[in-house]
TrEMBL record, chain A:
This is XdhC family protein. Residues 14-81 form the XdhC- CoxI domain. InterPro entries: MoCofactor_Util/Proc, XdhC_CoxI.
Automatic annotation (TrEMBL), chain B:
It comes from Marivibrio halodurans. This is XdhC family protein. PANTHER family: ALDEHYDE OXIDOREDUCTASE MOLYBDENUM COFACTOR ASSEMBLY PROTEIN, MOLYBDENUM COFACTOR INSERTION CHAPERONE PAOD. It comes from the Bacteria. Residues 84-225 form the XdhC Rossmann domain.
Amino acid sequence: MTTTPDLLTRAAQWADGGKKVAIATVVGTWGSSPRPVGSQLIVNEDSEFEGSVSGGCIEGAVVTEALDIMETGTPKLLEFGVSDAMAWEVGLACGGEVKVFVERLEA
Amino acid sequence: MKRALLETLNAARAEKKRTALITRLDNGDQALLVDGEIAGGGLIAPADVLDAAEAALTADKGRTVDAGDGHAYFVQIFNPPLRLFCIGAVHIAQALAPMAALAGYAVTVIDPRGAWATPERFPDVAVDERWPDEALEALAPDRRTAVCALTHDPKLDDPALVRALRSDAFYVGALGSKKTHAARVERLGESGLAPEEIERIAAPIGLDIGAVSPAEIAISVMAQITLALRGAKGR
């Protein structure tokens, strides 16, 4: 599987630069989902993000949650289904579900 | 994730260690598993989760585990990349290199003979024109590396095999008949390798599927490498 190895290095660099950082990881998928388990998205306090946890349909929601989790420090397990994610990419809209764990990078 | 844990994780990845990050999903507690040892994090992971982490690493696929303690844990795996080093830019290597690339291996063909290792014969494949032992010394085979000696020429194959057998390479295979291999075993013994080191060589190379053509031999080699990597399912 692809673990996007450079993302975690980038997350460390952001933290070195004094930014708050959150890490989102796909921990479960059901049905068709665009990105496999283990896929990651990193977000910093300026809403910059790299990586992906879907084909682009839930990234916005994950970034919003990540910004919140950066402040509270409480990790969250987010669940997205077709109804939440409005529009899966064409050809993938056949009942996909994805669980995404979002955590803050602690000092 | 704690910053110190991320540093340990990134260092382990850089060193191409077999690494898994275990996260308890209801509170974010984590443990880092590096080469089978707990290397960081405050989580005391239950035994069934540690077993699942090892299985996930072997399967090369992360997973969520519903543990016996009633909590769900996620295992994120960080396996080093798979690599295949082919000694000899020979006909079989021309078939094996693209097959291995399809199977997810970064392939390097090693052959100091310029006429063999040409880009025309090996499009899109990394070619290393150093002597095999020198090249392997530099490329440092690890436990996610397979090495195939394919030249039929002891001057090239033997030094490569000596280097490969002393590495963590999960697979070392050598082309040649039983007779050729018997002579090779004798030579390698004289070069100071222990019998149990020499026994690691898969020879004659490849699973016995009656392969004849270079492509068929490449299939049998790729199958044998896959078996060494994944283990049989015992069906």
